[in-house]
From TrEMBL:
Source species, domain of life: Bacteria
Lineage per the UniProt record: Bacteria, Pseudomonadati, Pseudomonadota, Alphaproteobacteria, Rhodobacterales
SUPFAM superfamilies: Thioesterase/thiol ester dehydrase-isomerase
Protein name: Acyl dehydratase
Xref: Gene3D superfamilies: Hotdog Thioesterase
Length: 134
């Protein structure tokens, strides 16, 4: 078993959300929400471009989960809040901070910022791969 992360340990993953990734997420999820896939429609709604899929943006946290908790854990639960929409081309910084660390669970506080402003907040629970539904 890997060494458990320390409480307070954190990791930030920075990524610019691209048009290509919008296409990939549309293909994976089947989500065809017009503001996410139709640039002209998004602009008629007062947006500068198509909007980033919120769940694609939230996926940035998974990089930190894997690196901090290690390969023996899986996502057991997640709670997210999105303070606002943001356009494709946005560069997000997603930070996961360990708040609890034990053999049977690792908990995180989540925060993502755009240009220094917090746009996503939340909490996540990781459990061992063979743990039952929580």
């Amino acid at each position: 078993m890997s060494e458990l992360p320390a409480i307070g340990q954190a990791m930030t993953f920075r990524k610019t959300m691209t048009v290509a990734e919008q296409g990939f997420f549309t293909g994976i999820s089947g989500n065809m929400g017009r503001a996410h896939v139709d640039r002209a429609f998004a602009r008629t709604q007062g947006q500068p471009d198509m909007l980033v899929f919120e769940l694609a943006a939230a996926g940035l946290f998974s990089t930190a989960f894997g690196r901090l908790a290690g390969p023996g854990f899986r996502l057991g639960g997640i709670e997210l809040g999105f303070d606002r929409a943001f356009p494709v081309g946005s560069s997000l910084e997603a930070t996961a901070t360990v708040t609890e660390s034990a053999a049977d669970k690792v908990r995180f506080d989540l925060s993502a910022t755009l240009d220094g402003v917090e746009v996503i907040t939340g909490k996540a629970l990781l459990v061992p791969l063979d743990a039952p539904h929580v």
